[in-house]
């Protein structure tokens, strides 16, 4: 095979001497001007989000940054860390545990929502009827609906916040409406309310942002990474090696409930403004 036959192309990053560009933008010019979430969106989609969408993307990443020590990815990361694995390997073990039944519901829920929207043929008035039909199909197959229900929360607080932010940004559209219709259909047909969980909320918003479902789970993986790092480091520094890790028998000994913004942040706000001027 000749060298010419090995040539391939990428549309993501261009590297030249003293110059790094992401999707055409100089990275050094993006630094300090866009948030990490905006840069993630740029890397994944090829374009920068609008100013009104940017805070919503940050909220999506914050919403899934961690969910305690019991999720499979966290247990996998801590178990690997307990064996003496380096941080990279422990975190990788956690990432590899994010699959269809843990952290993978976003893509499945996006596909469900897109199916409902397509069947309604763009008519918002038909979403309710289509949602009822789809829910009946899932029930007949005894198949779980993605994006609904939670093992702990009867009303996921992250969902309400994400939907409120999406509405304030003018983003909430047929994706959010379709998923709400699914939840309503479940309650009507079963007499039991299943709350929209954070995965469902993210899925609905990503649909309304026009993202492909193949990118859905990427947001969960990126969001959960800092939490996996924190758990891996805590395991390495606080616990004895190769310990038996019980999945539920543990307690919290971190800071007590704190209000936001913290008082110290308020005190420093005037100092920060001096630097910004």
Structure at a glance:
By secondary structure, the protein is mainly α. It has helices at residues 27-30, 36-45, 54-63, 72-82, 87-96, 105-120, 127-140, 157-168, 174-190, 198-208, 216-238, 263-276; strands spanning 13-16, 19-22, 25-26.
Architecture overview:
This protein has 277 residues and is mainly alpha-helical. It contains twelve helices and three strands. A three-stranded antiparallel beta sheet has the order 1-2-3. Helix 3 (54-63) runs antiparallel to helix 8 (157-168). 34% of the residues are buried.
Number of helices: 12
What is the mean pLDDT? 92
**For the report, how would you describe the main beta sheet?**
3 strands, antiparallel
* Beta-strand percent range: under 5%
As a percent range, the share of helical residues equals: 40-55%
Taking pLDDT < 50 over at least 5 consecutive residues as the criterion, the unreliable ranges are 273-277
Q: Radius of gyration from the CA trace? A: 22 Å
N- and C-termini, Cα separation: 58 Å
Q: What is the CATH T-level topology of the domain at 105-215?
A: Cytochrome p450-Terp, domain 2
> Order of strands across the biggest sheet?
1-2-3
CATH level 1 class label of the domain at 105-215 = Mainly Alpha
Return the CATH architecture of the domain at 105-215.
Orthogonal Bundle
């Amino acid at each position: 095979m000749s060298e010419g036959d090995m040539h391939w192309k990428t549309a993501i990053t261009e590297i030249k001497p003293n110059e790094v560009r992401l999707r055409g933008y100089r990275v050094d010019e993006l630094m300090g001007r866009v948030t990490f979430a905006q840069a993630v969106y740029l890397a994944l989609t090829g374009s920068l989000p609008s100013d009104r969408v940017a805070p919503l993307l940050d909220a999506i990443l914050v919403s899934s940054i961690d969910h305690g020590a019991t999720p499979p990815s966290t247990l996998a990361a801590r178990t690997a860390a307990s064996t003496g694995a380096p941080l990279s390997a422990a975190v990788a073990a956690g990432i590899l545990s994010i699959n269809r039944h843990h952290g993978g519901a976003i893509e499945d829920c996006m596909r469900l929502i897109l199916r409902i929207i397509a069947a309604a043929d763009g008519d918002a008035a038909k979403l309710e009827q289509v949602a009822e039909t789809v829910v009946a199909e899932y029930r007949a197959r005894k198949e779980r609906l993605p994006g609904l229900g939670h093992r702990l929360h009867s009303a996921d607080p992250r969902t309400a916040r994400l939907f409120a932010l999406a509405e304030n940004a003018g983003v909430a559209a047929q994706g959010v409406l379709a998923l709400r219709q699914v939840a309503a259909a479940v309650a009507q047909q079963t007499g039991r309310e299943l709350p929209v969980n954070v995965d469902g909320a993210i899925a609905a918003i990503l649909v309304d942002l026009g993202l492909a479902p193949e990118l859905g789970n990427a947001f969960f993986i990126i969001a959960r990474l800092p939490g996996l790092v924190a758990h891996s480091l805590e395991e390495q520094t606080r616990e004895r090696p190769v310990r038996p890790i019980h999945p539920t028998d543990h307690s919290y000994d971190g800071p007590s409930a704190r209000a936001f913004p913290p008082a110290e942040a308020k005190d420093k706000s005037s100092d920060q403004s001096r630097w910004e001027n």
